[in-house]
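Reopening this one. Same input as before:
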Amino acid sequence: MAVSRRLAKAALQERLVACVNIVPAIESHYWWEDRIEKGAERLLIMKTRESCLARLEEVVHACHPYQVPEFVVLRINAGSERYLNWIGESVATPRRK
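Same output, byte for byte:
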């Protein structure tokens, strides 16, 4: 749980996300180094805008101990207008490097 909370806090502090849900007790089965593995994991659902994805991925890779942490993007096709506006207002405009 420590890694999940550290990731959530880092993303929130940089205002890269409006909200992070931590879903415990995920059992993953996957290929790793030519073997089928399984392990207990947690699923983080991070709500953000497309403009923050590149920096958010950097934060995930910096904070996560896995060599290849899962980072996939599921686009929001529809939702409550008030909720989607809240996400947009809660996430900072990304800084240019």
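So the earlier flakiness isn't reproducible anymore. For the record, The CA atoms of residues 3 and 97 lie 27 Å apart.
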